[in-house]
Amino acid sequence: MSNTNESVVSACNLGLTFHTSDGPVTALTDVNLDIRRGDFVSFIGPSGCGKTTFLRTIADLEKPTSGTILVNGMTPDQARRKGAYGYVFQAAALYPWRTIEKNIALPLEIMGYPASEQKARIERTLDLVNLSGFGKKYPWQLSGGMQQRASIARALAFDADLLLMDEPFGALDEIVRDHLNEQLLKLWERTNKTICFVTHSIPEAVYLSTKIVVMSPRPGRVTDVIESTLPRERPLEIRESAEFLKIAHRVREGLRAGHSYEEH
Ligand SMILES: Nc1ncnc2c1ncn2[C@@H]1O[C@H](COP(=O)(O)OP(=O)(O)OP(=O)(O)O)[C@@H](O)[C@H]1O
Prior knowledge:
With about 260 residues, this protein is α/β, with parallel strands linked by helices. It has a domain at about 95-160. The chain has helices spanning about 50-60, 75-80, 100-110, 115-130, 145-155, 175-190, 200-210, 240-264, and strands at about 5-20, 25-35, 40-45, 65-70, 85-90, 160-165, 195-200, 210-215, 220-225. The strands form two sheets. Strands 5-6-7-3-8-9 form a six-stranded mixed β-sheet, with helices on both faces. The chain has a three-stranded antiparallel β-sheet with strand order 2-1-4, with helices on one face. Helix 3 runs parallel beside helix 5. Adenosine-5'-triphosphate (ATP) binds near residues 20 and 51.
């Protein structure tokens, strides 16, 4: 049963410093954030501010050096073992020698789902991302946007409630991106997932999110958390509304404040 008050990700004074041969690199400092079930959270900030590192920490791909982070109330390690999240990377990261359906099957194979269950899940997730009928194609036979949708299908296939998406549409042209943004919102509505989404685009962040996390340049800190006042139902034209522009303005201000922090 989903409970909208449940905390899916809870970060408390989270810090992460990489120890490199050139000395320590602090990617995150003192990040406090609460993400609730059903939230669509965007992370926006300049290059290198720690957005990917934060997502990777949720996914247990990086270990914090200070503070704590809980995923579904568990440590990231426990959550990962329970298949708590699906991860969509910047590039579609599909295996070229596997068909689309075999790519989607991969995590299901690893998790030991029986063949009949795999087939049903592949069909269902292909349908969710509007790729029914493309399962037998190879990634190179699909457009960039379709490949990204296939990688979203792969992340959805095992019913993780949490979807981590690292700039999934960054490399696509604006028309395709608009279309995928609309589709992603519909998918979020239909599936009631919690989504963490990294982007460099202010309009994309405002259009998609219920919550926008603005981050400052290195060391990455959260400078503003904006709760969206836009309705859940969002036609693309909403981007011209006064409310939308107001939120975009606040994001821009937050980004600017982060920059001046670095100069002082
Ligand atoms: N494994 C690593 N070892 C050393 N430093 C790292 C490592 N991973 C990331 N960093 C550094 O940590 C900082 C944050 O990187 P991160 O990739 O999280 O930023 P980002 O905000 O996602 O950037 P972008 O928007 O360019 O993708 C950067 O300065 C990066 O060079």
